[in-house]
Every structure is written in C-alpha cells, then in structure tokens.
Specification:
With about 375 residues, this protein is an alpha/beta fold. The chain has a single domain, classed as TIM Barrel. It has 16 helices and 12 strands. The strands form 3 sheets. It has an 8-stranded parallel β-sheet with strand order 4-11-10-9-8-7-6-5. Strands 1-12 form a two-stranded antiparallel sheet. Helix 1 crosses helix 8 and helix 2 packs across helix 12. Bound molecules: ligand FNR. The site of ligand FNR has 26 residues, from helix 1, strand 7 and helix 12.
Length: about 375
C-alpha cells in the first residue's frame, strides 16, 4: 500500500506543476442565459442557499474531494484542514480524497480528519468503486464503508467511479465486475447517504438511472472539461506505450454540461456539477440546468497546499459574487427561481442532447 500513498502524492505534484486540464471545454459555453433588462428584484435580496440531503447550505458550491494519506501525511492533512476551515466559514460542504490509504494504513487517519477545525461542516468520505468489485478477493463491504465515514466523523460517503483513470495507469484497478450489485447491497444496510461521483469523464443517463434504482442519494457528475485524470497519468506513465494510451484518452468522456442535463432529465437525484467549473457564470448555468451545487477541486489546491485559508475563501467568494451577479441579471431571487429562467442551448451540447434526451421537455422540467 506504500504504492497507493506515493501515487496520491505524485497526483498532487502533477496537478500543481503541469497542465492537467482537458483540452476541450466542459460544454457550458453552449449554454446561454437570456439577459433581463428588467430583473424586478434587488441584487441585495438574492438568496444563494440550497438544501441537500436534509441540510441547508449558504452557497451552492461544493469543495470536491482531493486528498488524504499522502507520504508524510502532513501535506494532505494541511490541504484538508485548510479546505475545511474555508468550508466551515462559508457553510458549504466538502469531500476528502480517497480513503483507501486509510483503510490499509489506519495511522494515516489524521490526514483526513478535519472535525477539530470544522465541527459543523458537511463532510463527505471517499472510497473507490473498483474496491467493491466481486473480482477482488479482499473487496470492500460495509465494514470499510463504515470505517471511512466514522473514523473522520463524516456525514456521507462518496464512491468514486474512475474507470478511465484506472484503465490508463500501469497499476490500475480495472476490475469493475459486480460493482453495482455491491453498491446496492451496501446501500441497503448503510446508515449514511451515498454519493456516486465520477472523476472527470461524466455520468450518462443510463448509469444515472441504475444508480437511482439502487437507492444512491446523489450524483456528482464529475464531467469532462476540467482536471483530466488521463492527463495526470500521462505524466506518470513509465514508457511510451503508457504515455500514448493516456494521451489518446486525455479528452475522453461526457462533458459536464451534457452530463448535468442527462442526469437531470433521467432521474430525480440531487446533482453536483463538477469538472472544469472555473467561474461563477458557468456555475450559475449549472444550477439553472438543475444542479444543486457546482463542485470545485483543482483551483483550490494551490492555496490549500500552502495552508492559505483566506486564499481559498477569496477564490470561493469570487465565484459567489459572480453567481449572484448572474442571478440578478436573469431576475432570479433564489436557486429555485434560477432553475426556471429561460436557457438557450447551442452547438455541440445541443446536438448531443437532441440525440440523447427530449431537450425541450428537459428544459421545461429541469
Ligand atoms: C481529485 N479528485 C478526486 N476524486 C475522488 O473521488 N477521489 C480522490 O482521491 C480524488 N483526488 C483528487 C486529487 C486532486 C489533486 C484533484 C485535482 C482531484 C477529483 C475531483 O474530486 C474532481 O472530480 C475533479 O478534479 C474535477 O474537478 P476540477 O478539478 O476540474 O475542478
């Protein structure tokens, strides 16, 4: 398991030092608000709060899970605690990174622990879907899931789905057989909400429907257009064959905007729109398309690494002000009203959605 820990450290290093973003957009440039010259509201009265899994949050932004358990653990611990202080201050939810290292090396638990600095934050634990596969002899079950949540005092568990990343990394866990059934069994007994999350390749309507049918509580679409995990693995590849494979799949996946529409159209599950969310106008579009949160990972990594809580908050406040401004300019007093403003969808995103869903029906009922 030393490997898992070193690997997580390398991921952070590459994310900080190299360009690991997708070369394609997340699709929101195809989604347009219609400017309203008579908003008929005061900007000051706009309420950005949202409800999610029985809790109310002040802003519709989710800090996506990134780390824990890295070499030395201090780095990961600092990142998580810094993010947690910001989340506590703003009353927004956050996730930690994969707790696989903690399951194997319980002494790394502190690098995921933030309750001392963030007593009220809605905290989401994190385990990987392939670890639940029937192909793995020492597969995870309810015991590991409980350990992940309860060791750190989390409120929910995220199960990350990352077949793309696993498929292009040399030591990848490409066993996915029996995962859905295992998650259904877990969900039947597990006392905490479960969020199924992609990690940069998006969730289709077919997958969303299956996840809803087994009782999963929410979906983080983790779409294409932000951090590319094949991009990260490209830099980690050991030989030309590996580099070629990772490069070839760098931009594989379902764009975030497209995935939000597919999941909203096909299920009633709350949605977190993560993947390349880099400004508040884009975030407002995701909310208007039916997401409850916009999720952010990579932009917060640099200040978090330095322990710069104010730096993290500054970025988030910028997003918040941009969301608020967009809401003012379409006359939406709150996020619910934002979901009813007209949207115009053009280009690639429109062409995709016309072949996959009833686009006018979705736009009416989002
Ligand atoms: C991640 N992400 C991630 N997701 C997950 O479920 N478990 C994990 O351990 C990690 N680790 C991780 C490390 C780092 C350094 C980054 C940047 C990201 C994925 C993350 O939660 C998110 O889905 C994607 O990064 C897309 O969002 P951004 O980065 O485009 O905002």
């Amino acid at each position: 398991e030393e490997l898992t820990i070193i690997r997580k450290f390398e991921h952070i290093e590459h994310c900080l030092k190299r360009n690991v973003q997708a070369h394609v957009s997340n699709g929101f440039e195809d989604v347009h608000f219609v400017h309203m010259s008579l908003p008929e509201i005061d900007k000051d009265e706009i309420d950005l709060s949202v409800e999610f899994l029985g809790r109310r949050f002040d802003y519709p932004i989710f800090i996506a899970g990134m780390t824990g358990g890295t070499k030395g653990s201090q780095l990961a611990g600092r990142i998580n605690k810094t993010l947690a202080k910001a989340a506590q201050e703003l009353n927004i939810p956050m996730g930690v990174g994969s707790q696989r290292a903690m399951i194997r090396k319980p002494e790394t638990w502190e690098s995921y622990y933030v309750r001392d600095v963030a007593p009220d934050v809605f905290l989401v634990g994190n385990l990987g879907a392939p670890q639940f596969s029937e192909t793995i002899p020492e597969r995870y079950g309810i015991e590991e899931a409980l350990k992940a949540v309860e060791t750190i005092g989390a409120d929910a568990l995220a199960i990350h789905m990352n077949p793309l990343q696993e498929s292009v990394q040399p030591e990848g866990d490409t066993q996915y057989r029996g995962v859905l059934k295992a998650l259904a069994e877990l969900k039947a007994e597990f006392p905490y909400p479960i969020i199924a999350k992609e990690t940069g390749a998006g969730v289709s309507k077919e997958v969303a429907v299956r996840l809803e049918s087994i009782g999963i509580d929410a979906i983080d679409v983790g779409g294409l257009g932000g951090t590319s995990w094949s991009g990260v693995e490209y830099y980690r590849a050991k030989d030309e064959l590996g580099r070629n494979l990772a490069l070839r799949f760098w931009d594989w996946g379902i764009k975030t905007a497209v995935s939000v529409a597919e999941v909203r159209y096909s299920t009633d599950l709350p949605i977190i729109a993560t993947g390349g969310m880099r400004d508040g106008i884009t975030m407002a579009k995701a909310l208007a398309m039916g997401a409850t949160f916009a999720g952010v990972a990579l932009p917060l990594l640099k200040p978090a690494m330095k322990g710069d809580v104010e730096g993290v908050i500054k970025i988030l406040r910028r997003y918040i002000e941009e969301i608020r401004n967009a809401m003012f300019l379409v006359g939406a007093r709150n996020v619910e009203e934002l979901r009813r403003v007209p949207l115009v969808i053009t280009g690639f995103t429109r062409e995709w959605l016309e072949q996959r869903i009833d686009l006018p029906g979705y736009l009416r009922a989002r």
